[in-house]
Amino acid sequence: MSRINPILVATLLATGLPVHAEQNAALDDEARGIVKSFFSSLKGELVASLESGGPVEAIKVCNDRAPALANEAAAASGWRVARTSLKLRNPANAPDAWETAVLRNFEASAAAGEDPNKIEFSAVVDQQGQRTYRYMKAIPTAEKPCLACHGKTLAPQVAARLKELYPDDRATGYAAGEIRGAFTLSRPLQ
Ligand code: HEC
To answer: Domains in the chain: how many in total?
Structure first.
């Protein structure tokens, strides 16, 4: 598990967000469990839809089901659960200052050779005076199924449908193994 990384703590302090040098293994485990079940339901629905209807049809899963599954995971756990990225498809998934700093750090860790499948970070931060536990886990792309909709060359119908739904889409041009974004979770602490 990522222990508090001194470089990242410095980056976060530079954003003006206080960070407590505090770790909580139980919350880390809970966060990992929420991510695992959210990701496996999303991936399951995505792969099933790709197999039955192809990539244009499967865009619906990402468009409707990804936010719905995130909301279900949030309702079941009481946490905030979302996905974010530095290169967004849906502007509603935009990162806040903390998430931006962590995503940049994830990019730097991957560039330094860390396995993107294992990159994660957690910290207790103050958010408007509320002590809050925050957790992020990198989401690398895999050749299949991700690059059909996030790769360098998309089928024309896929590109056209994405353009319709997301006129400002920046989430294409990826190669396998690159960090597409991150799961981002948080919950207030006492
Ligand atoms: C069938 C097309 C399709 C496939 C395949 C696909 N995505 Fe996406 N992806 C989308 C769409 C559409 C969105 C926008 C979802 C929304 O509106 O919240 C999206 C959004 C995301 C986001 C949220 C951040 C953002 O840019 O809005 C991440 C992270 C992401 N995808 C990662 C992946 C990964 C990793 C894979 C492979 C496991 C994958 N996607 C496969 C279409 C796809």
So the answer is: 1
